Request: fold
Amino acid sequence: MELTGNVFVVTGGGNGIGREVVLGLLTRGARVAAVDLSEQGLAETAALAGAGERLSTHTVDITDRAAVEVLPDAVISAHGRVDGLLNVAGIIQPFVRFADLEYSHIEKVMAVNFWGVVHTTKAFLPQLRTRPQATVVNVSSMGALAPVPGQAVYGASKAAVMLLTEALYAELKGTPVTVSVVFPGGVSTHIAENSGAAIPGRSTDAAASAEAADAWSAAAAPSVLSLSATSPSSCSWAWVMLTISDSGSVSSVEPAGRTRSEAWIWVPTAAP
Reply:
């Protein structure tokens, strides 16, 4: 789909991946309506973009259905039309086991990660279907495929996004609207702070941080590894090990066996 001149709505545009998507689209000549709960975050994105009238910002709580339902009119008022919707906004849960997770946290994660996608997609789909070409892109997570202890509800919310998107893809085949789902792995953003969740191992004390991170990795690995026993052999997937540098960037990606306790992830590969 051509980006230049087309109009894209991006949720979570005030920080993290959403902000980078906004900036990337603008760099490629698109017009963007950035949506976020944080007015300050949106202002920072606008300052970084310097895109003038090609960028509009909309402070909206995507868990508020009534607020989202009037968003298409605001975007059309700013840009004249809508050609694409990118649902990036998301939060994680506190790093505690399901049995200890409060209902308020469960409801909040599902409200943002799943219902937020439902609200925006329902609101914009009628407009998208009027365009000669349009797209919906929903951001799920590797956590939807590889369960991690302490993030059970987050993983469930992202799995729900995955299945919703796959069903939309099937329902909208033959229409002008293409549908895609994205599975990011670990990305260095402020999602933990924005979610009010402390990440195990993130400490100002290096020794304590390393010890906690090793313990968390060892606890998570058996559940991740167990997927290999239930995954259909016909699927083209591979186990890899990511080595993360102190700065948070990926310093190496290696083919992996399944006998050690590092933080393995299961990733799609090219079809055989």
The radius of gyration is 19 Å. Residues 200-268 form one domain. The chain has two domains: 7-182, 200-268. Residues 66 and 119 are 9 Å apart (CA to CA).
